[in-house]
Amino acid sequence: LMRVEGWLFLLLQTVVLVLLGGAVPSFAFHAPLSLMPRYSHTSTTTRPVMRCDAVSSGAITELMQEHDPILLFASKLLPSDTAVDASALYAWCRRLDEICDQPGADPLETQEKLVDWQYRFDQLWGGNPTDEMDAALVHCLQRNSIPRKPFCDMICGMQSDAVDGRRVATMEELEEYAYQVAGTVGLMLLPLLNAKNMKDAEYPAICLGKAIQLINILRDASPDAALGRIYLPQDLLQAQKVQNEDVLALKSSSGYRNVVESVSNRAWKLLEQAEEGRTTLPGLGPLFVQVIVELYRGYLDELERRGYDNLTVEGERVKS
């Protein structure tokens, strides 16, 4: 997340757009990146690596246009070399996300695909990419000292989605999930962006990713319900006497809206923390972060205007 480019790719969410938290940010429970193993730049220098010239930039552009149009717009601001590496990261995260978001997919089959994805990642980390897009990520890893842990944490987060009737027990669990599926993206991007101080930059990067994920969850409550998923914390729903059956049926209530407001407030706080840490980025990075923060605050403002009803608006289902 260090330059204009990195912050931008936190929009990824990949997927899935995925999540949120308690008073202590989930980042606090993870070891400093300086202690984590990083990609060995010598691991692929003695073996042939698949050329990634054939990777269609058009295909990646289509992915961004469909899933992250804001990201596509912002990517135009990136230096060409950084854009290539960031695009390789985006493609890896997006393809992982799509494994988990297939309507009607058998959870067991999804788990098997995720096991295969972990194997593919282990192979490309060792310099043996499976396809051209994996090869593009290998080249990115060769040029940047990116830690391995965020990739594995993201896969772990996706595995938690590969179940029937996905539920999240508490705010703490939701924030951990948000770190896994979105905060990790910022950590992947930091080495690309040359932050003034990597350690200081990690926390705001994670906050921005988690805020985006929480907002995506609020935005996508209706399509998630169609998949049988409820990401709002069960303990908060139960405290407000909200039944899961009503959420899945897109029935809004005052208790449900209270829970949405609580999650929205947490997302707002995370945006503030990301905003406060934007000066850890060089160049136009701080300005770029401010643009992202304001865009997502805009959704939270709109949600408040609607009375925190993210299921129905004047009798119509919310459009994502």
UniProtKB/TrEMBL annotation:
EC number: 2.5.1.32
Superkingdom of source: Eukaryota
Keyword annotations of the record: Carotenoid biosynthesis, Transferase
Gene Ontology molecular function: any one: geranylgeranyl diphosphate synthase activity
Keyword Cell cycle set for record: no
Catalytic activity, reaction form: 2 (2E,6E,10E)-geranylgeranyl diphosphate = 15-cis-phytoene + 2 diphosphate
Record bears the keyword Transferase: yes
Gene Ontology process terms (BP): carotenoid biosynthetic process
CDD domains: Trans_IPPS_HH
SUPFAM superfamilies: Terpenoid synthases
Identification of the protein by name: 15-cis-phytoene synthase
